Amino acid sequence: MAREFGDLELGYLKRVLDSGVLGWAEGHLVTEFEDAFKEVVGARHAIARNSAMTGLVDAVMLAGAGVADEVICDPLVQFGGIAALANNAVPVFADVRADTYLLDPESVRAAITPRTKAIIVTDLWGLCAELDTLREIADEHGLMLIEDCAHTIYAYYKGRHAGTWGHMGVFSFQQGKHLPTGDGAMLVTDSGDIGPRLRDLQYWGESPKTLMLNHRMNEMTAAVGLGQLQRVRAYVDEYNVNLARWIEEVERVPWLQNRHVPADCVQAGYQFACTFEPEEAPVEHGRFKAICKEAGAPLGFGFTERPAYLYEFFQVPWAYGDCGCPTRCPWYAEKADYEYRRGLCPVAEELLPRIITTGVMQVPPAEMDERIERFREAVRRAEEAA
After folding, report:
1. pTM given for the model
2. Under a CB-based contact definition with an 8 Å cutoff, are residues 89 and 71 in contact?
3. Domain 232-304+348-384 adopts which CATH fold?
């Protein structure tokens, strides 16, 4: 299904223009969008932001993480780590499970220190992590659990919508996400303590109550969001059909392993992923990649190829100039031996190069037929080459 932008969105945009209020104002369309979105996910509070990245930064700030504090992040994506750095806190990376590609609670537990303030868990590619266990760990240690829900509108874990297990959930409305507004985001929480603090982030006149930046959503973006919110269920249903087709197709190939989806999870179609199993494969990994390219099979190999902490952005402490902060901050001196090095998250490092992905969003049935046929041809060629 192609995304649709039409009279529905134009009607909301006309309301904004007729009102003459283009920026945020209490009781206008941003407020309507917040109220409608929190009903969809089942949260008590929602606040709209200009992007999910700034939403994550806000969430880390609300967790109280700053100089010489630590924020536990997963290593397959870098956004949680960036949010920690933006608050001058230290990203500490925990490992993932090999079958779901999601944050491993036991690795999180082992990473907690007296300096830990928050855990950021990414519900990657439409699938929720073990959110009940992660919440238990967070509560046990007095930490904030922040869910990065950029891929998980209409994804559920044990009957609850993604974003409602953590103390805060951050949803993305960037152009490539389920609910596109160009850019934009929503923070949600059930906490009666956090909800008012979220509201303080939205409007503070000339002087904020604490140091913060203006990350508000404007009325024009909310107008598009209100329209898209009425369409997104149909989008996700269509993406789920495509996701199911790929899962069924890969199930027939003994040397590819589908991602494990626990029985108590409802995945939202975003990106299909599986792994290449070299011990069972008829050809080596690089040869299969070349065969797929020759056959025109639209598969991505290796995702980012390496975990976030091996990128220079984290390797070099340049977030705050040449002072060495946050990882070489004088206030963090006793942890100066902590390194972003190979071997830090061995499961992630072994897993990433073997991940194979393909898109399931905005792919009409005829095109999906063609993509799957090319994949079948690649598999056939690989098996004949054995």
Report:
1. 0.95
2. yes
3. Aspartate Aminotransferase, domain 1 (3.90.1150)
Positive/negative CA dihedral, 248, 252, 255, 261:
positive
For residue 362, give both structure tokens: 């905005």
Give dist(CA 82, CA 91) in Å, integer: 8
- Single-letter residue type at 122: T
Q: What are phi and psi of 177, to 5 degrees?
A: -100, 175
Q: Which residues of 303-326 are buried (b: 16+ CB within 10 A; e: fewer)?
A: beebbbbbeeebeebebeeeebbb
Task: Report how far apart the first and last C-alpha atoms of the chain are (Å, whole number).
Answer: 38
Helix, strand or coil for residue 11?
helix
CATH ID of 7-231, from 3.40.630.30, 1.20.1050.10, 3.40.1380.10, 3.40.640.10: 3.40.640.10
| 251 neighbors 333 (Cβ within 8 angstroms) | no
Domain ranges of the chain: 7-231, 232-304+348-384
**Sequence-ordered list of residues with C-beta below 8 angstroms from that of 173, at least 6 positions apart, any chain:** 52, 179, 180, 181, 182, 183, 184, 185, 186, 221, 225, 228
Cα separation, 197 vs 121, whole angstroms? 21
Q: What is the pLDDT along the chain (386 residues), one digit of tens a residue?
A: 678 999 999 999 999 999 999 888 777 999 999 999 999 999 999 999 999 999 999 999 999 999 889 999 999 999 999 999 999 999 999 999 999 999 999 999 999 999 999 999 999 999 999 999 999 999 999 999 999 999 999 999 999 999 999 999 999 999 999 999 999 999 999 988 888 888 777 665 667 777 778 889 999 999 999 999 999 999 999 999 999 999 999 999 999 999 999 999 999 999 999 999 999 999 999 999 999 999 999 999 999 889 999 988 888 766 677 777 787 777 886 665 678 899 999 999 999 999 999 999 999 999 999 999 999 999 999 999 87
Do β-strands 116-122 and 45-49 pair in parallel, antiparallel, or remain unpaired?
unpaired
**Per-position DSSP letters for 20-73, written without gaps between them:** T--S--TTSHHHHHHHHHHHHHT-SEEEEES-HHHHHHHHHHHTT--TT-EEEE
Report the DSSP beta bridge partners of residue 60. none
